[in-house]
Design brief:
about 375 residues, alpha/beta, Rossmann fold, Glycerate kinase, domain 2, six-stranded mixed sheet, five-stranded parallel sheet
Length: about 375
């Protein structure tokens, strides 16, 4: 039997590479004669840079940037000089996990630090910068990012404005930087949300970032105003583009101020990994991530891989710490590795052990 093992990360517990190793070890204990092919999935969310860093010729670089509330921190990005490709995750600078829960302030959080990280990636001499969108603490429409790379924002009196989510309603003028670097920006997204509306970033992702109902409505109105100013300035609007709402509207900002191309993070990674050919060549696909839920069906790695497996008539088994009923029909089998008798922290700490045991037990069940 030839088995393709291609998990995403198990957030807070295992990287994709660690998860793949645990699954293979557990499966091999039961089926030592099996042939294993390992691939690490990513879809543009957190963990994407880790996957790209494992590719041939990749180097890890570090830059001094700021978090979403302006505190200094160091952030990493990936540079592949042989390809002229740099890759970064915006969450490395502007991520929600960088801000202690007690200090989070959605109306002041900006993507300025992610823009600083982009400048560092561009300084390598990259022809292309791939940006993973996901895990952000922000909802500024990418305005903070634009500010970091040289765009200026003015109020009606011509005064400089700091483009925080709470200030976007006061922006009336946009001034471009003196020079714009000829770098191609690929925005890797795992969602298709537009900027505004019921499926927009404020209403869908605002609650996950601690926003109250009042703040959500304020951010929605402010982003609508900001997008109108952008449309007046540039003569076009990207607010309805699928993925514009990714990372608190960072997709919109990258489209508007960087001329970026939004692509499916999974499709881009899968193409680089020649994943379709590897699925076609195997007998069984195994995947997984920390949580399999409704978002898994919206472009997340394991869900997209299951669809690819189905297209090639291959069974696909998924492991996860948490499984919602909505995904059970997507995979041939869903296997939980969580132990309800212990707390979340202990389950996360035992991730590799639990995943290996679950893989072994599942393999044995196929033999019986």
């Amino acid at each position: 039997m030839r088995i393709l093992i291609a998990p995403d990360k198990f957030k807070g517990s295992l990287t994709a590479a660690q998860a793949a190793e645990a699954i293979e070890l557990g499966w091999k204990d039961a089926m030592p004669e099996a042939i294993f092919d390992r691939a690490c999935l990513a879809d543009g969310g957190e963990g994407t840079a880790d996957v790209i860093a494992s590719w041939a010729g990749a180097e890890i670089r570090r830059a001094d940037v700021h978090d979403a509330l302006g505190q200094a921190l160091g952030a990493e990005f990936v540079w592949i000089p042989g390809e002229g490709l740099a890759a970064m995750e915006m969450s490395a600078a502007s991520g929600l996990e960088k801000i202690p829960e007690s200090e989070r302030d959605i109306l002041r959080s900006t993507t300025f630090g992610a823009g600083e990280l982009l400048l560092a990636a561009m300084a390598t001499g990259a022809d292309t910068v791939a940006v993973g969108l996901g895990g952000s603490a922000t909802n500024d429409g990418g305005a903070g990012w634009a500010s970091a790379i040289g765009w200026k924002f003015h109020d009606r009196m011509g005064r400089d404005m700091e483009p925080t989510p709470g200030n976007l309603c006061a922006i009336e003028g946009i001034i471009p930087p003196p020079r714009r670097a000829p770098v191609k920006i690929l925005a890797l997204s795992d969602v298709k949300n537009p900027l505004l509306g019921p499926r927009g970033c404020s209403r869908v992702y605002g609650p996950q970032k601690g926003a109250t109902e009042e703040q959500i409505e304020l951010m929605e109105a402010n982003l609508e105003h900001f997008s109108n100013v952008c449309e007046k300035t540039f003569g076009t609007s990207h607010r309805g583009t699928p993925g514009a709402g990714a990372a608190g509207g960072t997709g919109f900002g990258l489209l508007t101020f960087c001329g970026a191309e939004i692509v499916s993070g999974f499709d881009w990674i899968a193409h680089r990994l020649d994943l379709e050919a590897r699925v076609a060549a195997c007998d069984l696909v195994i995947t997984g991530e920390g949580s399999l839920d409704a978002q898994t069906l919206e472009g997340k790695g394991p869900g997209a891989l299951a669809a690819l497996a189905k297209a090639h008539g291959k069974p696909c088994i998924a492991f996860a710490g948490r499984i919602e009923n909505a995904v059970r029909g997507v995979f041939s089998r869903c296997v939980s590795i969580g132990d309800p008798a212990i707390g979340l922290a202990e389950n996360l700490a035992r991730g590799a052990q639990s995943l290996r045991a679950a893989a072994n037990k599942t393999a044995q069940s196929l033999l019986s």
